[in-house]
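dude i think i finally got it to work??
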Amino acid sequence: MTKTFTIKQGQKPTAEQLHEVSEAKKRPIIFDEDSPELSPAMFKAIRSAVIHRNRSKNA
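look at this
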């Protein structure tokens, strides 16, 4: 299940949200045909695209 929260700048997460994140970190990542594990080359390409996007947003 995916939960979406909108956090405004300067807003701190609640204790419940922090607890949910810490519990989620303990669970394994499950890959399937809809979300397969990325190859190292694909991971590098996505990471590069994210860095480029973030630079464009902050400019």
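The chain has one domain: 15-58.
im so relieved honestly
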